[in-house]
């Protein structure tokens, strides 16, 4: 007889890796195309020499470096095994009863409903606006006495839509102070809005707001798993209580510190990615696609029922993109030649005739 497992877990989708297409261009995971800088690779190699020793469970050096960089106290900073681990820990520190509610826009980051269910809480998805953005008024209206946690993904993955500081603050003002609001800023480094929505600045004087950022996207360390939270010291302390011990490993900590030191060079790269993203959007709009403006390193194609077939057809053309159910397809901005390969597929007359008709 097999052991008894929580039956409610059966409804959580098991991760299905994208079809393996050796040699195909991968525009499916919002990664950067360039490997670590030499200084970062060196820090990783040096850390590997000490692999027999446990890492610093408090990530003291990394948190101090982040605190200095962000002009906050060390007590305001927590790190996690990717910011996705912090998402799960945030549910753990806020939700205790199955009636406790986690509110988020939908479609948004696919981890939100999963970590909510793993945490035995109730997911409350609020549909996006017709413009593929968070419906902040509807989200405020969906708050109940059971709401414990709200995820706001800004820019939104997978649609790229983004709110400026004014609109974010208006929403925060509408949320009761006992509800924890998480501003998930995984794509912060790609933002170029005039009304700059810097969560770390926005959350000063707002103890119920926490900001999530990651080294996986613009900093190019997706394979090492390190993200961070900036929040009120009491919330940070709670995160430390539920943290899986040593889950931010020695290589990840060393690489993150070295990447912060090399940030000017790393963040320079975001300008090229943004230029490519805009070039892709223009070409797609010209071919007849609907493409909401994006402030991240990807574009969103709301292809509805066609999404899965579009993903298949793109893979046949050796470009892997990410279809999401019957909502749409997300395409990461890669290197120019990779994006050209995608655009050649996407703008071919037989493709536009089949999917945009
Ligand atoms: C990629 C992503 C993350 C987290 O990535 P990690 O690799 O776990 O740090 C978090 N939120 C959003 C919206 C993302 O797209």
Automatic annotation (TrEMBL):
Signal sequence coordinates: none
Organism: Nocardia pulmonis
Named cofactor requirement(s): pyridoxal 5'-phosphate
EC class name: transferase
GO molecular function: aromatic-amino-acid transaminase activity; histidinol-phosphate transaminase activity; pyridoxal phosphate binding
NCBIfam families in the cross-refs: hisC (TIGR01141), PRK03321.1 (NF002878)
Modified residues (N6-(pyridoxal phosphate)lysine): 217
Keyword annotations from UniProtKB, A to Z: Aminotransferase, Pyridoxal phosphate, Transferase
Protein name as it appears in the record: Aromatic amino acid aminotransferase
Role summary: Aminotransferase that catalyzes the conversion of aromatic amino acids and 2-oxoglutarate into corresponding aromatic oxo acids and L-glutamate.
């Amino acid at each position: 007889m097999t052991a008894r497992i929580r039956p409610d877990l059966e409804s959580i989708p098991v991760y299905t890796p994208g079809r393996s297409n050796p040699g195909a261009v991968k525009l499916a995971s919002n990664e950067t195309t360039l490997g670590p800088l030499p200084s970062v690779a060196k820090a990783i190699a040096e850390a590997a020499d000490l692999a027999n020793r446990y890492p610093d469970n408090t990530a003291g050096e990394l948190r101090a470096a982040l605190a200095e960089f962000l002009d906050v106290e060390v007590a305001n900073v927590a790190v996690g095994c990717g910011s996705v681990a912090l998402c799960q820990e945030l549910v753990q520190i806020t939700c205790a009863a199955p009636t406790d509610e986690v509110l988020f826009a939908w479609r948004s980051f696919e981890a939100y409903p999963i970590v909510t269910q793993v945490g035995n809480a109730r997911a409350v998805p609020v549909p996006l606006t017709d413009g593929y953005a968070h419906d902040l008024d509807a989200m405020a209206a969906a708050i109940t006495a059971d709401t414990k946690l709200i995820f706001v993904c800004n820019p939104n993955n997978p649609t790229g839509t983004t709110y400026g500081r004014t609109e974010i603050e208006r929403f925060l003002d509408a949320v009761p102070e006992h509800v924890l609001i998480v501003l998930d800023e995984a794509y912060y480094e790609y933002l170029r809005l005039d009304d700059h929505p810097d969560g770390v600045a926005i959350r000063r004087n707002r103890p119920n707001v926490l900001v999530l950022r990651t080294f996986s996207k613009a900093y190019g360390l997706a394979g090492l798993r390190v993200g961070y939270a900036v929040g009120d010291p009491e919330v940070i302390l709670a995160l430390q209580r539920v943290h899986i011990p040593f889950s931010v490993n020695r290589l990840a900590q060393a690489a993150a510190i070295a990447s912060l030191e090399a940030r000017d060079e790393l963040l320079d790269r975001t300008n090229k990615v943004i230029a490519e993203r805009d070039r892709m959007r223009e070409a797609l709009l010209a071919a007849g696609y609907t493409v909401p403006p994006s402030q991240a390193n990807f574009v969103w194609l709301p292809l509805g029922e066609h999404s899965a077939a579009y993903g298949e057809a793109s893979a046949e053309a050796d470009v892997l993109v990410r279809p999401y159910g019957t909502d749409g397809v997300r395409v990461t901005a890669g290197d120019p030649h990779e994006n050209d390969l995608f655009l050649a597929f996407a703008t071919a007359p037989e493709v536009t005739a089949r999917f945009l008709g």
